[in-house]
User: Which sequence fits this backbone?
């Protein structure tokens, strides 16, 4: 819509609508990955770089929680594994995925992990960590508090890093 408004303001022809998002690799096609798969895989790489090795179901659940991938780019575990391989990730003998060699976590994610590691957090504590890590107050209190892929809800008003939640055992389904 923004492109249409800008074109109208500048007296230009209305732009063509964007191409539809392809969120699955067609069966039997070559091993190239649609952009949506690579985008999710890149987010997975960032999570692995910050948290460390994770089993595919934990990483897939983290990506499914992430606001930007909830609807448009949901991938099956198999599709996510294929995309992670294309992004250079490797899986060890224990089934844990590793980021490509030399991948460095972002400063924000490093700060989140440093502040939250080993802690059982309330929602407000998680918001404070997100704010301290560099998110705006409104972002930390809004979308990020319910959709940041590094956090898992473990109970009513309880959150942990996904690696800590994995070590702690069963958790509540993702949500608010």
Assistant:
């Amino acid at each position: 819509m923004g492109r249409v408004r800008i074109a109208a303001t500048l007296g230009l022809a209305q732009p063509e609508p964007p191409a539809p998002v392809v969120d699955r690799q067609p069966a039997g096609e070559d091993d190239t990955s649609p952009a949506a798969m690579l985008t999710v895989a890149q987010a997975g790489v960032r999570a692995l770089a910050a948290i460390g090795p994770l089993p595919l179901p934990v990483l897939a659940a983290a990506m499914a929680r992430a606001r930007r991938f909830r609807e448009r780019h949901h991938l099956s575990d198999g599709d996510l594994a294929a995309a992670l391989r294309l992004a250079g990730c490797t899986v060890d003998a224990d089934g844990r995925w590793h980021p490509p060699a030399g991948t460095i976590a972002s400063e924000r994610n490093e700060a989140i992990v440093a502040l939250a590691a080993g802690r059982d957090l309330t929602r407000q504590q998680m918001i404070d960590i997100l704010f301290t890590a560099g998110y705006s107050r409104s972002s930390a209190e809004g979308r990020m508090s319910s959709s940041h892929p590094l956090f898992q809800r473990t109970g009513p008003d309880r959150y942990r890093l996904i690696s800590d939640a994995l070590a702690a055992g069963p958790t509540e389904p993702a949500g608010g």
The radius of gyration is 18 Å.
